[in-house]
Design brief:
eight-stranded mixed beta sheet
């Protein structure tokens, strides 16, 4: 069993009473409150858990509100007519509300495998884990201290078994328990450390960072679909430049995208143009998010791989570069084909649109191509005059169509 769970007796958590923290019920999703109060009224322990608590403590608006409870999955299902049980890794209760909203509700769990069993079956993905536990064991099985906090709706307190409150104050990402064990248990946690550090503007704690540098190659034993998903999760929130720089520094990028990492090494390392392209993409991400739009993964992949594309500088380079990307991450084919089109649009959009050769404006990826080329040109400090002409032509055609 894990060394950090080998305690002779249970220790008490630090409990922060309502005056000691900034979480208010008015900032918690009303449907999440319904789930918490319903389970509590039935005699179950029910806490708001994970990233939602972390974000509320930081004054951020959480993307998700997750609930941890002593109720078993079938007991949660009986409590809510709008509940559906899902999951292969372990059974989760999804309580569904209007607008497609889901409040994910999980029974408190504990780790159920030895380190040897986890390493032996690492290539199969995260271990099966339907061993129910207590709030304490559930806190210790989470990845990082800042994600191990619970909010108790009964007395409005924050319950801290793992030191997460102090680490939020210190702005650090720290693995719960022995990081050497935790990253071998689930190597994708290393990518999550990068994601949280870059997104929150935190520093990765010294021992946690050292373990990442020792075990980065374990990421190759993780299930490829999970890794691909985590790669694309590094882009939102406008922090991809910091995220991929950290991925490069700890060695994860060299494992997952060796051609890209090699290019970065040849083109200035931390000063590589790769990070300038990503910095421009980050500004675009922020702008699109403010307008309520999400950036396509095809555009993200194209920008990420623009450095190697420029280095090859030959016809068909986009396809060659993205084939290497695809081979490593097995991204959806739609992402691959979209990225290739965007990368190979640069030559076409670098000059003014010519009558009879401007049908590209009717391509479904034209606007992404326009934005991709703007991102690249802005990073390089070059003129966008030709792109503006293409944009004006697109607007004029759209206006004509609207008048028909």
């Amino acid at each position: 069993m894990f060394s950090f769970l080998k305690r002779k007796k249970s220790r008490e958590p630090v409990v922060y009473k309502r005056p000691d923290h900034c979480i208010s019920r008015k900032n918690i999703d009303p449907d999440a409150l319904k789930v918490l109060y319903r389970l509590s009224s039935l005699g179950y322990t029910a806490y708001l858990v994970g990233g939602g608590v972390r974000d509320l403590l930081m004054g951020r608006t959480p993307k998700d509100f997750d609930v941890g409870t002593s109720a078993k999955p079938n007991e949660v299902k009986r409590a809510f007519k709008n509940c559906f049980l899902v999951g292969r890794r372990f059974l989760l209760a999804h309580v569904r509300f209007a607008g497609g909203k889901v409040i994910e509700t999980a029974t408190f769990r504990q780790n159920s495998q030895t380190v040897g069993e986890i390493i032996e079956h690492a290539s199969e993905g995260p271990f099966e884990d339907n061993t129910f536990g207590t709030p304490e064991t559930d806190a210790y099985r989470r990845d990082f201290t800042v994600n191990g906090l619970f909010y108790n709706i009964e007395d409005f307190s924050v319950i801290d078994w793992v030191g997460g409150m102090k680490d939020i104050e210190k702005r650090i990402i720290r693995a719960i328990g022995d990081p050497d064990i935790r990253f071998q248990e689930d190597p994708v946690r290393m990518m999550r450390a990068v994601k949280f550090a870059s997104r929150l503007g935190f520093t990765i704690e010294r021992k946690t960072l050292a373990a990442m540098k020792r075990h980065h190659s374990c990421i190759l034993t993780a299930a490829v679909p999970r890794v691909c998903e985590e790669v694309f999760r590094l882009f939102p929130y406008g922090k991809s430049s910091e995220a991929f720089r950290l991925m490069y520094e700890v060695g994860l990028l060299g494992d997952l995208l060796p051609d890209l990492a090699a290019h970065i090494g040849r083109s200035g390392k931390s000063k590589s143009m790769v990070f300038k392209y990503l910095a421009e993409l980050d500004e675009y991400e922020k702008m699109m998010s403010a307008k309520g739009f999400e950036v396509s993964n095809g555009l993200r992949a194209a920008v990420l791989m623009t450095g190697p594309l420029k280095e090859l500088a030959k016809d068909g380079a986009g396809r060659r570069v993205m084939q290497a990307f695809q081979q490593s991450l097995k991204a959806p084919k739609a992402v691959y084909f979209s990225a290739v089109l965007l990368m190979e649009s640069a030559k076409r959009l670098s000059s003014s649109p010519v009558k009879g050769k401007s049908r590209f404006i009717y391509n479904k990826d034209f606007l992404d191509a326009l934005d991709y080329n703007r991102i690249v040109l802005r990073a390089e400090g070059k003129s966008e005059e030709a792109l503006n002409e293409w944009a004006d032509l697109y607007d004029a055609k759209a206006k004509e169509k609207g008048c028909e």
